[in-house]
Write a structure and sequence with these properties.
The complex is a heterodimer of chains A (256) and B (215). Helix content of chain A is 36%, strand content 23%. Chain A has helices at residues 32-42, 60-70, 86-95, 104-108, 110-120, 158-168, 189-198, 212-220, 231-234, 240-249; strands at 5-13, 16-17, 47-51, 77-80, 99-102, 125-133, 143-147, 152-157, 172-177, 203-206, 226-229. The relative contact order of chain A is 0.15. Chain B has helices at 14-24, 37-42, 54-63, 67-76, 84-87, 198-210; strands at 2-7, 29-34, 45-48, 79-82, 90-93, 99-100, 105-111, 128-133, 135-136, 151-156, 158-162, 168-174, 176-184, 187-190. In chain B, strand 13 (176-184) and strand 14 form a beta hairpin. Chain B contains 6 helices and 14 strands. Chain B has an 8-stranded mixed beta sheet, with helices on both faces. Classes of the chains: A alpha/beta (256), B alpha/beta (215). Chain A binds chain B through residues 1-5, 40, 45, 70-72, 74-76, 93-96, 98, 120-124, 171-172, 196-197, 199-203, 220, 223, 225-226, 255, and chain B through 13, 15-16, 19-20, 23, 51-53, 114, 118, 120, 122-133, 151, 153-156, 173-174, 195-198, 201-202.
């Protein structure tokens, strides 16, 4: 059967990994190529780069990072952050990315997802959804799409939005709970389950992973097809191999 | 010295394929990404990748006037089809309401059923995306050093159903059991992406560079 995927995510700013990386043997801790190489050796199923570069002058650096990584790491690579035009998609794919994640641009221009999927195929278009719970205690659960790092509400219902993006050609959904992001208390499992049940394409759960049981829960309870985490791997709290071993022992099908 | 032609018809991530081959190639191997029929037929080995919809792939092959070169290469030299480079070798696909393909092998390309579930009752998503096992259904030099049941990276919504079961070289399970690898004489073709399948995928590509089938 198909294995559930473990995807480490690297936040890259002007060509350097941020949030701090503490692999013991890596001297240059912020080099995304070295970090990607290490994740590959540990058994990562894919690697996602999130370009958080603010200055447009430095945006070209992510292309170089992808080119370098693609030349020596032979697993799927996804790049997100700053993908706004069909030309951005083409540039990333040409650099060696297998998929691009479209986030804010999808909200402001939903047709962009359609254009990109028509041109390059749904298999390389990931729509990243940042959702936040908006229902009050006791109300039936509801989540909305937020932009700008979770600060700006859009009024768009997350489940409906996910369905619409799949209709427009998203081949995969990268779902981040803005309530859980950075908290280390686990995925928003109800949100994950709601989206996973609503769409026909794979869903990657993101936001809130603090321990290995959270990864198991995301798959077993949330129904996610893949789990994405940053800090538990960055700070070498756990290796990817340990994560997979833990999941396998709890009955999750993984690639060991 | 040998040349490995990677057929470029504008469909798919040829950079990844070329880079992966270069990674395992020897000093005397030359990897050539090309849409030139003569260059393809002049190469010692041919890799035929592909991504996207069946009709788009067929149109692109026609636009690049590569139909004959692909068929000739597939009949005459070590030939490795990848993903759509496997599917278009069959007769026709259900995709786009029915598309004629190159027709090298009798059989259809069909879509995964939409209502599949796993044993826990979770819906099986389409595309079939991720790492799945491949059961090797025949001994083949290309499988050398690749353990039985190894996982490879897939991303596809359609799969091949060749009429001749004699060409099956690997099968996988995703709701249904499907053909993930075919092999016939000098041709080997996989539904998965060896160039994205880490060590086992690289091993397959390496085997391909050394494979000397009778043609």
């Amino acid at each position: 059967m198909l294995a559930k995927r473990i995807i480490p995510c690297l936040d890259v700013d002007a060509g350097r990994v941020v949030k701090g990386v503490q692999f013991v043997e890596i001297r240059d801790a912020g080099d995304p190529v070295e970090v990607a190489r290490r994740y590959n050796e540990e058994g990562a199923d894919e690697i996602t780069f999130l370009d958080i570069t603010a200055s447009s002058d430095d945006r070209e650096t992510i292309v170089q990072v992808v080119e370098q990584v693609a030349g020596e790491v032979f697993i799927p690579l996804t790049v997100g952050g700053g993908i706004r035009k069909v030309e951005d998609v083409r540039r990333m794919l040409n650099a060696g990315a297998d998929k691009v994640a479209i986030n804010t641009a999808a909200v402001f221009n939903p047709d962009f997802v359609k254009q990109a999927a028509d041109r390059f195929g749904a298999q390389c278009i990931v729509v990243a959804i940042d959702a936040k719970r908006v229902s009050a205690e006791g109300e039936s659960l509801r989540w909305e799409i937020f932009t700008h790092g979770g600060r700006k509400p859009t009024g768009l219902d997350a489940v409906e939005w996910a369905k619409k993006m799949v209709t427009n050609g998203a081949g995969e959904i990268l779902l981040t709970s803005m309530d859980r992001d950075g908290t280390k208390i686990g995925f928003d499992l109800k949100l994950t389950r709601a989206i996973a049940d609503a769409v026909s394409v794979p869903v990657i759960a993101s936001g809130g992973v603090g321990n290995l049981q959270h990864l198991v829960d995301g798959v077993a309870e949330g129904g996610a097809d893949a789990v994405l985490a940053a800090s538990i791997f960055h700070f070498a709290e756990y290796s990817i191999h340990e994560a997979k071993d833990y999941m396998a022992r709890r009955g999750v099908e993984v690639r060991l | 010295m040998q040349t490995i032609a990677v057929i470029d018809y504008g469909m798919g991530n040829l950079h990844s394929v070329a880079k992966a081959i270069e990674h395992v190639a020897g000093a005397d191997d030359r990897v050539l990404v090309t849409d030139d029929a003569d260059a393809i037929l002049g190469a010692e080995r041919v890799v035929f990748p592909g991504q996207g919809a069946a009709r788009d792939c067929m149109n692109a092959i026609s636009e690049h006037q590569l139909n004959r070169a692909i068929l000739e290469a597939a009949a005459s030299k070590p030939f490795f089809g990848i993903c759509m480079g496997l599917q278009v070798l069959l007769q026709c696909s259900e995709e786009n309401g029915g598309s004629d393909l190159l027709g090298l092998f009798p059989g259809q390309v069909v879509r995964f059923p939409g209502d599949m579930h796993d044993t826990q009752g979770n819906r099986l998503k389409i595309p079939h995306m991720g790492w799945n096992r491949v059961r090797q259904t025949q001994d083949h030099p290309m499988w050398s050093g690749v353990p039985e049941g190894s996982r490879f990276y897939f991303v596809h919504s359609y799969y091949v159903r060749p009429e001749d079961s004699g060409i099956l070289a690997g099968v996988s399970d995703y709701g249904v059991e499907f053909t993930s690898v075919i092999a016939s004489r000098n041709l080997f073709a996989t539904q998965f992406h060896p160039e994205k399948s880490a060590d086992h995928g690289l091993r397959l590509l390496q085997n391909f560079l050394r494979w000397n089938p009778e043609t």
